[in-house]
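pinning this so it doesn't scroll away 📌
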Amino acid sequence: MERSDRAIASTTQDEHLATKNETANSRMGLKYWESVTSDINGMLGGIPTVPGFGSVSRIDLQGSRTFLARLGVGIKNERKPVAKAVDVGAGIGRITEGLLLHVADSVDVVEPVAKFTDRLKTKKGVCDIFNVGLEDWKATEGAQYDLIWIQWCLGYLSDDEIVDCLKRCKTTLRDDSSLVVIKENLSSGNEKMIDDVDGSVTRRDEDFRKLFTLAGLNLVKTDVQRGFPEIPPKRLLPVRMYALKA
């Protein structure tokens, strides 16, 4: 199960998080996300209402836009848009509307909570909407994507589910220039962390790299998200972006 837009969920590194070597609880995650409001505040776990953290969504989208630009994807300075993208764990479409529809002709949406995607049904540029979890998602037969965007949602999947998902994603890439971009929180310690509110797992950088290799994907670029506010003792977990190719 996945919940992208929203899995930044914890406002601070130590709030609601316990360090354990456990696996994700997707049922717990789905129950949590079905209970939140269908707005940006709900998607980002209440972070925008925390004093000093209201700019998190804007900064996140700008960081993603810059990362894509460095990969040659965009609409300025000889960069090129793509024909087809998919937003995995789309929530209410924060990333679809704020990023992907600016660099892609059309966007498919994967989001298990149907109430979040209601507003996207009439959005120009949005095509297929899949109200299923990432672990169960299969693209329409014959679908080919130039860009698969997966953000803040792999924490709801087990290691095996992530590998299986990425293998399926790999088969839908249009050609050797097509990209899978993953953007996730990273554990700030030496072990994975379990969120006892939504059941998600926060992995380490080395955990992700191992899973990418097992899925047969090649890491072509990676960078950290910069610019998030930090007002001691509150600060967000580290966030890293990975660009992968078949």
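📌 and the second one:
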Amino acid sequence: MEYTLFLKIFNNQVLRYNIFNKVSEIHLALGLKTCEWIRLANNPQLLIKYNYVDCVKEYFVKYLTPNCSSHITRLIGFSISISIEWGRFKVLEMFVKDLRLKLSNYIRHSLMFYRAAYSRKLENLVALERFLIEHDDIDNITPKIYVEGLEVAADRGTLDMVVWLSNKVGVISPDEMTVSPIELAAKNGNLSMLQWLIVNRPKDSYHQVVHLALENGHVKLLDWLVENEHIDPTNITVNIDILADSGFLNSIIWAHKKHCRITCTHNAMNLSASHGYLHIIKWLDQHRTEGCNQFAMNIAAENGHFDVFKWFHENRTEGCTNKAMDFVRANVPKISIEKYNEMVVWMHRNRSEGCTTRALDNASCFSLELVKFLYYNRTEGYSKNAFYNAALNGRLDIFKFLEENRTEDIPTNVIIADVCRASVNNDCLDMIKYLNDQYPEESSWSTAIDTAASNGNLAIVKYLCENRSDRCSEIALIGAIKKRRPDIIEYLLSNKLVIWTSKSILEAVGQFYYSLADHLLQQYPEPFEINKAMNLAEEIYEFSIDNIRNYFKQRNLLNIN
């Protein structure tokens, strides 16, 4: 686009606003991320990623002072690290030449080579070594600085890196690397790398090769090792419990067929039940004698593995406890409500262990149908937790049913506070409306707006402000700033619902909401005392202190030499 035309378009606020809004909409529709420039300009990680070298320099020039905080020091180390990983050596050059930093003061050499190897690009390793030598940042090259790089290269399967680094590193002791390159190749099933390492690094540890390969199901790699007489499986002890937990039946069968020394307990079947590995459970039932205990059925129910639970019911005699019905679905909330209902009803009709009040309490999170079934068909009843669960999950229908049939007081004061704290996704507005209508005098309403705003729930904030006389405190504004909710911030400020202090301004600066901080400063209800603000910043905003100092300096409120 012609430069003059570009300026005409983007200097027009309406056009600029519409263009960037449309770009954001397109990115959102495509599932892509967008980033406002103010966020990008204050995020060294993103600036380095997109290779804005001058902006990275500008950022650190602002904050790199003789008395800069430990946060900035750590940030420099992290920036060096990601520059290496992403191959941004111009950024490293800027750090060394323009900012006169010695890189190894911020990140050790071994970690530099680790990050270069993590990139899976051999050119980054080579370029890093050359860069460090050329810029005198490495006084004494020893094999130790390459060890972590070799470890990550082997783990990530980059053979060209492993070859290059192996020329730098000799035999590795267990103190230097707990898992050797050969063992890492076995863990990942990387036969070509393992073959190269056996020939070129024969003195590295083999101790965990078989176990790591079995735990990850790489039996073909083990077959090659056996065929080429690198291992003798009859001399290897294999723990079937661990393999069952890993979920690889082929590894269990391999260990048996190759006559490994087998150890196994009832935990093999228990752990398989926890994961829903019915194929392993059936094999263990047919080929092993260790069996299981009641934990197997309990955990199968808790993790929603109904097929496993029914198989144990039909094929084994260990049974379960009342925890099975109590905790169905406890660990897997994504199981459909229909399946959840089916499991509990089936247990009621086919098992004799029963349940406790926890069964109906837990059902109150999800299913009115099941709540009614348990209420009318069982005698255990429910506890106060049933009300709590229904309210926090936005299930007003369940809450009303329990309320109509209650035999004890409802903990409404606690419920109100926690519903305001609940996830926006739980859609608790109707619950709040109902609680306000039925229980308007509870003390927790006094902090309800603060709680809702701090948890990003604009709908509840609006309802409470419009339907109750309680007002919010500065906690609401600070919470909305922390949650990065400009809609809530705008609502609170435009309706003059909150009085703020310097703490809100400091929070806004710390979150890079400079426009908001400017607005709060301009509308500050009394003369702004910069010394008190800075004392507060040093006390509770350590990680943002350099940013805060720079902000006030730019606005001529603070003199820094």
